[in-house]
Amino acid sequence: MCSSARLPIKTTVADDGSGPSTASVVADWCARGLFPVEHVWQPDDGWRKSRVLDLAALTARGRYLVFLDGDSVPRVRFLAALRRCMLPGWFVASKRLHLSRELSARVLGDGVPVWRWSAARWFAAPRELLRTERESARLGLLVPVRDRRRPWRSGQPEFSAPYEAYGFCLGMWRSDFEAVNGFDLRFENWGGEDEDIAARLRRAGLRCGWPGPKATMLHLWHEPKLGLMPSNKQLVRDSLSGDHVEAIAGLRELAAQESANRVGASSSSSDPVNR
Prior knowledge:
Blueprint: E1 2-3, E2 10-16, H1 20-32, E3 37-42, H2 49-59, E4 64-68, E5 72-73, H3 78-84, E6 90-93, E7 96-98, H4 101-110, H5 119-124, H6 133-136, E8 169-173, H7 174-179, H8 193-203, E9 207-209, E10 217-219, H9 230-241, H10 251-264
Parallel strand pairs: 2-3, 6-9, 7-10
Antiparallel strand pairs: 1-2, 1-4, 4-8, 5-10, 6-8
Helix pairs in contact: 8-9
């Protein structure tokens, strides 16, 4: 997660119980000194993405929050595209291009700089670099004529993230995040927490915009996850059909829990690891 209204940015790594390898990567980036990096960790106690994102938000200090999934790579002009969309009354989401298993391995193993590739470079690349043949038709996500729904253009329709998947890139003012009480901690299985917060942000009066093709994310290959667990499906249904703006159990409840842990010093359930 990045948080800042202007560069330099601060990056907070929200770590849901991974091992020493992640801490080593964070330490390496800290040593480079390019920008501040903080590591917020919680023990592995099942899928608790909502909780660790709220925990990271409590640690972050910026006025604008951007949540990025660890398997999504931003393009080189991502922050410039995002900064133009930081407008009152709006939150932003993006689109993504799915990379193949082979290209993802080269990105992770050899450092192939796909984030620097221009739209022309992508169009010239072999189609096997993308996950499926269907992805070839999605290269239009990388050029500006594809979609002009930008927050600064009047009369534009609201943007809906593909497949209603907002979690791989979601940006909003901190004040708006706090107004909806952050992510809902009740989402304790995979998926749905992003769709829930997007619905509540809209219910709070915000509109969703797209920062444009420079903000299209490059999604690394991984084994497909199963569909939403029944409990999460029900939470999403309740969220979409309900009228609540604030998370039932969210940012404030977590802040109170963390404060009690620090005062009592009797629980180590979610002490941030700062580096």
